[in-house]
Automatic annotation (TrEMBL):
InterPro entries named among the record's database cross-references: DUF4351 (IPR025587)
All residue ranges annotated as the DUF4351 domain in the record: 79-132
Source organism superkingdom: Bacteria
Name of the molecule in the record: DUF4351 domain-containing protein
The organism's taxonomic lineage, starting at the top: Bacteria, Pseudomonadati, Pseudomonadota, Gammaproteobacteria, Candidatus Kentrum
Gene source species: Candidatus Kentrum sp. FW
Pfam families: DUF4351 (PF14261)
Amino acid sequence: YLIQTYTAYDEKTIQEIIRKVQPEESDTMMSQFARDITKTARQEALREGMQQGMQQGMQQGMQQGMQQGMQQGVQQGMQRGRQEGEAGLLLRLLSYRFHPLPDEITQRIHTADPNTIEAWADRILDAKSLDEVFGE
């Protein structure tokens, strides 16, 4: 009670107030006041420590998330670049060998996965027609 009521006062002022109001209980009340101050200080320190820990944890989490996101983005970008490069090369080779290419073939190449593009590229070497390249 005292700590909540008299937080604006210093210890000396509190002692004087207690001695004037209840001189017979001043030692007991000062001991209680000291315990209350200690308890309040611990609670405040714990609250500040938890708040600081949460902030640091959030910052670390955000940094790790950003790093992982950037790494994943770079990897995906490189994979997509390779896939587009392989698709472009396949289109050039097919155009050279079987020109002109139907739009359907061009679209099929652009939407194919890397393994399929690789299989089609391998078939170009021996294929005599587009059907032999794209035949399943």
